[in-house]
Structures are given as C-alpha cells and as structure tokens.
Amino acid sequence: MLQVAPSAYRRHAARQRNPDLRSARAKRDEALEPQIQRVWEANLKVYGADKVWKQMNRENIPVARCTVERLMRRLRLQGARRGKAVRTTIPDHSAPCPLDLVNRQFKADRPDQLWVSDFTYVSTWRGWLYVAFVVDVFARHIVGWRVSQSMNTDFVLDALEQALYARQPTGSESLIHHSDRGRSMSRCAKRKAWPKPAWKRLSAARATATITRWQRPLDFPQSREHPGASF
Questions:
Q1: Model's pTM, two decimal places?
Q2: Among 97, 108, 200, 209, which residue has the fewest nearby CB atoms (within 10 Å)?
C-alpha cells in the first residue's frame, strides 16, 4: 500500500478537479509539449533536444534547453544518432554452456583464483576495434588482452592464452574462468575451439570454465570498471 499524506491527496484531487490550481511550471509544460511535438515531427523526427530548442527560439517561443530535454524525455522523443549500434553479446544457442559457478560473487582470496573475460569496442577513425581482456578479480589487474578488427573467437582465445602464458597458474590450486554467454566468449569453454598447446596449459592450470546465466548479460562489474587502466 502506498503511503500518501492526506493533505497531498486532497491537493492532488483539487488540481484534478480544477486545473487552474496547478503550478505555473505544470501549466507551461502543458503548453510547450504540443510545440515540441510539432517541431520534432516537422523535421522528420530526427531533431534532438539541441535542434528542437534552437528551432523553437527561432520561432520566438522562449524556452530553456533543459526544459526541452526534460519534456522530450517525458514524451519519449529522441533524435537520430549517427553510426550503427554495436552489439557484442550475441548468444550462441547451439553451443553447450557450463553452469554459472560464480553466481555474481566476484570475490577472490588469492591471485589466479577467479578470472573474468569480456570484450568491448572502441570507435576509431578507421572503424570499430574490439578489445578482449582477462581480469584477475583478486588483483583487479588485466592479465591478458588482444585487439581485433572483427568479433571472432580467435582474438578472445588469444587474450586468454596470453593470460595463461603470463601468469602460468599452477595446478596445485584451482582457477575459475568466467565469461558471458556471447558467441565468441562461450566458445572459450569448448575444448575443440582451443589450440592444443593452449588447452594443455588450461588443463595444467586446472581451470574450470563457467558462464553467466542467461538473464544476466551485464554481470561483470570488475571487467567493466576501467578496462584500460591496468595494463
């Protein structure tokens, strides 16, 4: 049950019965919303808050930019954005996935106990670049990384292989390698995707592959904090 003060309820009911009792801001918002909608639709629905605000001022409708932005958000209007949206987590439904052994408990008591892998994208003048990295949760340090011009499995495997070569975890203590359900990341858990030397090192390190649950696409706080700060 929603707790509402009796005075607040009576004030709201009075404003519903008599709109003239509303605040000056509410009245002005009601008058500006049709104007913002008109300008946005008249310009092929591509104008953002800046251009809608400038156009309204050119038409002698004085309004602040923050007001236009707030009302466009309320009306769910947004301008066109340049560039194509990049999607990095593309699930592979055909690939068998290991269980989620981490369960969002990104804690480690020692180095090389829990690694998380992910990759992101960077816009450059020559196009998109993809950066795969492996983070040691205990040290919050990137232990392996690779850059590629395409989203393929090879550069993700190279990042993990570099981490294994650099850290050389021993088989005396187990290592958990955690990733998301993206196509490139989930194939890291398949033995056939690995070159034999890399798989031997993975086996020697007693590494266990684990993948986040389907309902948790953003499940890597350590890998998304500052991926470029700890090389």
A1: 0.49
A2: 200
